[in-house]
Amino acid sequence: MNWILFAMGPSGSEGGSPAGLLIPLLGMLVIFYFLLIRPQQRKQRELQQMISALRKGDRILTTGGIYGTVLSVKEHIIVLKIAENVKIEMVKSAVASVVERGNEG
User: pTM value?
Assistant: First the structure.
């Protein structure tokens, strides 16, 4: 029974300094930033560059899983050819990746 009392620790109002608690918290925030936030920002920047570089003739994959060839690029909208005589308009942000770069300019 006495081991339970020892496991609970001292029973005083001994408080550590706030700086002692703040340093590990700041360390965790720095690690969190470099492991999660920074790579996500880099990935977002690469996606924006890829979308802004879309050109007529590029073969793309959309976030909905549709493969298509870019027929035209407007400010916020692209027109895709997904089959013979089938064209759809999509927002640029729906592009997941460029599968193949087109030869047309």
Answer: 0.64
